[in-house]
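Long-time lurker, finally posting.

We've been working with Beta-ketoacyl-ACP synthase III (Rhodopseudomonas palustris) and I want a structural starting point before designing mutants. I don't trust myself to interpret raw outputs, so I'm hoping someone here can both generate the structure tokens and explain anything notable. Sequence follows.
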Amino acid sequence: MRPAVIAATGLYTPPDSVSNAELVEAFNTYVANFNAAHADAIAAGEIQPLAPSSSEFIEKASGIKSRYVVAKPGIIDPAIMRPVIPERPNEEISILAEIALKAAEEALERWGKPREKIGAVLCACSNMQRAYPAMAIEVQNALGLGGFAFDMNVACSSATFGLKTAADFVGGGSVDAVLMVNPEICSGHLNFRDRDSHFIFGDVATAAIVERADDADGGWDILGTRLKTQFSNNIRNNSGFLNRAAPEGRDNVDKLFVQQGRKVFKEVVPMVSDMIIDHARELGLDPHALKRLWLHQANINMNEIIGRKVLGRDPTPEENVIILDDYANTSSAGSIIAFHKTSDDLAQGDLGLICSFGAGYSAGTVFVQKR
Ligand code: CO8
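Top reply, 14 upvotes:
Generated this for you. Predicted structure of Beta-ketoacyl-ACP synthase III:
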């Protein structure tokens, strides 16, 4: 296999941010209205009153303080509580491809080479615009690229699965350079009326260019990649093309994101910690010597436990990068945002880890070394 390099990354952050306080205010207004409208049924014990949310709980349980979104007004309107995103004509680029393109443009600019060198575009993310045509092909078309492009979905682990796919294409000689994009409009699949999860996600897009090491001027050598999946029902989204065929109709809440957050926490933390340590040892690397962890950004407490297990001590904030306070969980993009924002300052030879985990369950580890 030819060695491959992460040569450049890009990030698109939507301009609007929603604080916990704004989200909780909308949620609690919805709750008060619901309870008032159902006061008789609640008094008769026929239905349970809804409980309010709280900013303190959200920050303590998850570490999240705010999130960026592509369509703020509807999300914080208690009468709507979802992003309002008008459909576009088929001739126009889709919103997900559009934000992917913005991240891709930054990655291409930082790369500094002719874009025609890109032989493949992968769109690796959780939140798909549609079944087909692929968002990746829209991005390929908008950039005027040849070669081939396709979408792939491994939920929150899509980006590490995408990096491995890109490294394998480059390594096997299929192409010399791959553009991976990770557009995530998670707010579209989030039930903003669900107290347990209304605060979890945000919107963003990231991009990364993987090229053959012989062509690369700088960047990060990919030392090894490992993927893992293990079936779990604890994170689900049952939205799909057969919803319209079901006699129950298509507006059930399980067609949005649902999870058993406690179970996910308990099961995924040991799975991922062991995977990182085993993979490092197999590569002949000392996990304690890692200079930086760019972990999936779902929950600060998960990342602190994983960081402690991997490094064998309490990591410093510089070593275990947290961006979820600002961005919330952005699914596949989280570890790439962290990498994009905090990789330039490391020195030649420094070791780091990009790691994802999420629905499926799925997990991916990508060990990198600064060139
Ligand atoms: N405000 C106030 N109190 C609350 C709230 C709230 N909003 N929500 C729950 N509570 C209360 C509960 O009622 C409970 O009260 P009691 O103890 O009296 O029963 C108490 O707080 C504790 O509740 P939990 O046990 O649920 O709280 P946790 O401490 O477990 O924290 C978390 C909840 C933050 C969800 C946490 O469990 C967690 O982060 N788990 C891991 C989640 C995770 O990593 N999931 C991965 C999902 S990402 C993925 O792969 C899917 C990708 C697809 C993206 C699609 C886009 C939408």
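Before you design anything, note these points.
Residues 53-54, 57-58, 61-62, 126-127, 155-156, 186, 189-190, 195-196, 201, 235, 257, 259, 261-262, 264-265, 298-299, 329, 331, 358-359 surround octanoyl-coenzyme A (CB under 6 Å).
The chain has a mean pLDDT of 96.
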